[in-house]
Amino acid sequence: MLTVLFLFACFVKAYSTATRIEWGHFTSAEQTAILQAHNAFRSKLALGTYKSAAGVKFAKATNMYQLKWDFNAADEAFDALVLCPMTPTTYKGQNFYKGINVSRTGCGTKACAAWTNEFHAFGPSGYVMTVNTKQATQMAWAKSHSVGCAWANCQNGADTVMLVICRYTPEGNTAGVKAYAQGAKTCAMCPPVAAPCVKATGLCGEPLPVPDYKLFPAADQTYFLSKFNSVRSQMALGELTWDNCSWHWATNDKPNETIYWPASKATYQLKWDAGLALSAGKKLASAKYFPDPTGNYALNASVGNFGYNTNVDEWIPRRDSEGTLQQMINAAWFTWYGCFGVLKMAYHAMADPKNGTQVYEDILYTYLAGSARKIGCAYRNDTGYWGILCYTWPKGLTVGSAFYPAGTPVCSSCPSTAPCNKATGLCVLK
């Protein structure tokens, strides 16, 4: 065993002639500086403004991506420096810098300057990897999207050596292949959505944001409306019952009571509105999760509740029975409709979020508000969670007021522009 350890120690000593003093990752500010050095170089190539020392003007690039920082690649570069290599293992997808007695400060941008200088000194050299331009071509490799770098300070004999390695994804420097596509029009090959052209830099930039929301297709709009208008019709006709669960929960000693909602003199039949649905979707796109006191996930309050009498469903952990849109609609409808009702028939404006009964009543009142004529809904279908948001219009609920004009005859206050449908008890817009 001692012999094996001795031989291993001798092998390591023979393999590594340099001693690592320190090594590490670049700070956030240094990462930004390294990216700026890369992208400034790539931008000049893309725009056709880069020239060699001999005055040779480089061709424009049509597919040059803007680089972003890659932390995984930085970790790979960090690991590659652990033994203080004095020569690089490869130039494919990797750049290597070695400086004698170079300060740690700014070593990343010094490395970038050394690499770009290859093009400056030797010209395009066919735009392919050569002995003299092998690191400039990797910096200019158009299809590389990201870069990550690390540094090491090593003692190699009498010399203090600063090493920098950068790794690129996807890797470049494929033998015989040009670093970038050339053409008269900068950005011509940039994907319009995945990496649209940034005209100021000539680079293929960040992808356009993909909305996190989705709009309901026509069949599900109809399904939603059938639910809303069916309940609104029962309410208008005085046929809607309410199980007073809130009393039961509050006291735990009273049985549920069944109460009939009073008939309505003027409750409109809801129509789907694409503009309201889009507005709801845009709100959903900016929504974030946060835990509510009951342990569920609800929409962040920044969404806003009453721009158009908006209503927000909880973000509900996905169950196996909620795989389709209609299953999600049913689950959302249950949380909205539930068993809350008309103890006072007065709108609270969700003034007391700790009073769950008032909050759920207000959500229900908004959907059943007699003055509401239009509705539009959108949904988020995230991993593990989903949510639905609906807007109704017009806004007509005021704090403390009834949310529809109760009384008979049914439909008696419907205007001429929305005559009564006696079968449903709803005012139907012409």
UniProtKB/TrEMBL annotation:
Segments traversing the membrane: none
UniProt keyword annotations, A-Z: Signal
Signal peptide: 1-16
One Pfam family matching this protein: CAP
Keyword Signal among record annotations: yes
Xref: InterPro entries: CAP_dom (IPR014044), CAP_sf (IPR035940), CRISP-related (IPR001283)
Domain SCP, chain residue ranges per copy: 29-176
The name this protein goes by in its record: SCP domain-containing protein
